[in-house]
């Protein structure tokens, strides 16, 4: 049997810096855990534009559609700000999302005990937190028609349309229930069924998917505004939250900040299953290319390494190995190893990007 395949697209700014550490981690699993990957690397974003005049070459797109998972660093930077919209670095990422049809966006909010002081909430509210927000990513009000700014009488009107088909709701709900089975077996679905028809349909379809195919998973429904309150009041009540594109955008950013630094936050986007039943998948840190610290060896590689841990768990069925990697990161943080973005108390000298990678590899050993 051939090894599982990974396409690495490091991108711009700190993307290649953090990805260097991820590649060391991937090699570690190959040599120490007998878990080898066929890794291919290519360009995306500004790096691809510099070489090919396009932020994503067709050959790269074709590779992304073939591999078992794509691992992306970050795209963009001031050098590319003046470029025409059609070739901006972000377009490379958007094309990947669109052609891979990545409709299910996974945003975990996980609090490492050693960093619980970083949260704006009280320590006991966030210590040990581990929730997953599943955001529908390819439909809803960001895409619905009609949209635009129109003349109406003697003034203008701005219009966006929240629109969801049953099949769009069905597939993201399935994705959430599948995840829940690998976690705490509990899903909370959030919408505004009290004031939105799309919310009524959302609630109906999610319930039906659960009753038909996931009766073993506990399902609750919550209005999204209450959900926002509950997320900051008692976030540990949740395991998996599934919600639409707009509410998911807001709720996932809110949940992310429960746990502190941008340099710690991984994400995944999943699409329809391939022939072998694995969903198409793209894993990436939540942060961008951080031009303010790029090239200085200061970037925290943990968000990108945790994105690889998500790949282990959700693309490769290696939940134990993912937990091994997360435990190594937990240990390093508990030992007080910090990149510059994680400095809270006085008197701690930050480690470099490579230094953090070294510490994680040592903890894995
Ligand atoms: P950003 O996430 O790149 O940076 C925001 C702040 O967080 C900066 O001060 C940065 O130094 C810090 N930061 C981010 N990641 C860090 C890490 N791993 N370790 C330590 N500190 C970290 O967002 P910003 O500044 O708004 O955007 C910069 C560029 O990145 C823009 O060109 C933007 O379009 C692009 N971007 C790309 C994304 C992607 O590739 N998915 C997502 C967000 C922004
Ligand atoms: Mg957002």
From TrEMBL:
Pathway: Amino-acid biosynthesis; L-leucine biosynthesis; L-leucine from 3-methyl-2-oxobutanoate: step 3/4. Keywords: Amino-acid biosynthesis, Branched-chain amino acid biosynthesis, Cytoplasm, Leucine biosynthesis, Magnesium, Manganese, Metal-binding, NAD, Oxidoreductase. SMART domains: Iso_dh. GO terms for molecular function: 3-isopropylmalate dehydrogenase activity; magnesium ion binding; NAD binding. One of its GO terms (cellular component) is cytosol. Belongs to the isocitrate and isopropylmalate dehydrogenases family. LeuB type 1 subfamily. Homodimer. This is 3-isopropylmalate dehydrogenase. It comes from Pseudosulfitobacter pseudonitzschiae.
